Predict the structure.
Amino acid sequence: MNDINHAVEVTRLTVAYDSKPVLSDVDLELPRGMLTAVMGPNGAGKTTLIKAMLGLIPKVEGQISFPKINGRKPCIGYVPQSESVDWDFPVSVLDVVTMGCYGRLGWVRRPKREDRELAIQMLKKTGMENFANRQISRLSGGQQQRAFIARALAQKADIYLMDEPFKGVDKSTERSIIEILKELRREGKTVVAVHHDLSTVSDYFDWVTLINIGVVANGEVKKVFTDENLSLTYRAARVGGIS
């Protein structure tokens, strides 16, 4: 494999829950510096793929690697599904975002003033600076999502893995989030996001991975986001409006 252009390399990945395969024999290469959508029906293994990449769940077999960037291991940021977060934990929005700095600081060194200042900058970037001192549980779903994106941005990562970053947000928030992701792309960052909305794929993403337990198609949106591949992925009738 060519390390230079790949942000993520997955080889023969199999993950199972209670002996039932959720992902089976997945081979996948995702490009650097692009916005990638991971798509498929419910139960296809999208979230499992993201968690397996992060090492959050065990593999039955297979390898996952993040090729080095200029000789160093890349930093990886993570935005989880909103349902997986304990929103009742008594912590402020600023504290949540500052936690993003721990990936750079390590768990021994405490955040300094410049780290808090960075967190505030990321809150401004996501339009959340006025909520810095509010408890995270008192935010709306869209505000919580933006706060966790700000937390990921505070990591100053090379690769961002996002599990449904647009879920539960209104159109205005969705537009602001995609602009942030496009800015990350302009900075040479890589974003891999679980996504559901077929109608926005061509506008939002450069690359798409279609999965349903295994990989159905993986490549540039303009090449693989076709009716045929969508039908194979979703096991449904021809999807209209996709050329």
Confidence is low (pLDDT under 50) at residues 104-108, 236-243.
